[in-house]
Amino acid sequence: MLFSVVIPLYNKARFIETTIGSVLAQTLPPLEVIVVDDGSTDAGPALVEALSDPRVKLLRQPNGGVSAARNRGIDAARGDWVAFLDADDAWHPEFLAALARAHRTCPEAGVLGSRVRYVYENRGEPFEPWAVPEAFCEIELIDDLRRRWMKNLPLCSSSVAVRTQLLRSMQTRFVQGEAWGEDLDMWFRLSDLTGVAVVNAPYVTVRHEVPGSLTRRVREPRNPPFLLRMKRDALDGTIPARYRRSALWFVAQLQVTMAREALSENKRLEALWYLMQARRFMFTRRWLLTFGMALFMPVGVAERWQRWRVRSADDYAQEPAQ
């Protein structure tokens, strides 16, 4: 397998050498590492240029956002697969080898991925290879990614590789001009076209809460465009028939999640608004529980409960799948 690695770069000088180093240290070497500088104003691009490995290529463009950078990298890729990595994250040395194993196990899958672990580290220090228990390295072929996503996060933007031919066949790749959910939008649209094979072990380290990070928690817009598109595409038949109900269910689940976030900020009316948007699934346990919280739970309790829930979800994401 020939992997082209695409790294969008914007003001990540502190991390970029460690990130690229984790790619060059792969036991299954990549064909190339395409770093797309999206108008950085720090020393990041110069650090990339100073690297002596001929596989590392730097492309420059005016600031257009992470989607534009990823799309530019896709256009430049020469490998059979495009693997994506954010400029402040890192791979285990066996990451690409693990994806190759997933491909051998599930050759029909056009998307490959792995679980991740989160660390709170903002200095850019290299990571020593972490232990990945063999007992948790099973390969899972996911048919309905939206349903699977709500169980626990099976992959992220730094742990995905996609067949290059499949990416180039898409009329719309990463939607440009959006800063929340543009990656989820891509993975779900891809999953409507092909199976997703995931190694259920953490072969990627994601730096969490780094200022300016693509993975940093930010307040989502009230009507995330990708959710509106998903609902529209499910209702108008764009999404394949067998995934339409799960797409509508997923939209409702995220609206319930946003209702809980609003409650944690003492915004009860906004929480109720989200719940009304999700009323198609109002008789589910999660919807009813959140509705009761919106009506009766004291604000301070709701805030503490939401913080605990988010922290627990992050902690679980670091563990191998059970």
UniProtKB/TrEMBL annotation:
CDD domains named among the record's database cross-references: Glyco_tranf_GTA_type
Cross-referenced Pfam families: Glycos_transf_2
InterPro entries recorded: Glyco_trans_2-like, Glycosyltransf_2, Nucleotide-diphossugar_trans
Keyword annotations: Membrane, Transmembrane, Transmembrane helix
Residue intervals of the Glycosyltransferase 2-like domain: 4-126
Transmembrane segment boundaries: 286-302
Protein name per Swiss-Prot or TrEMBL: Glycosyltransferase family 2 protein
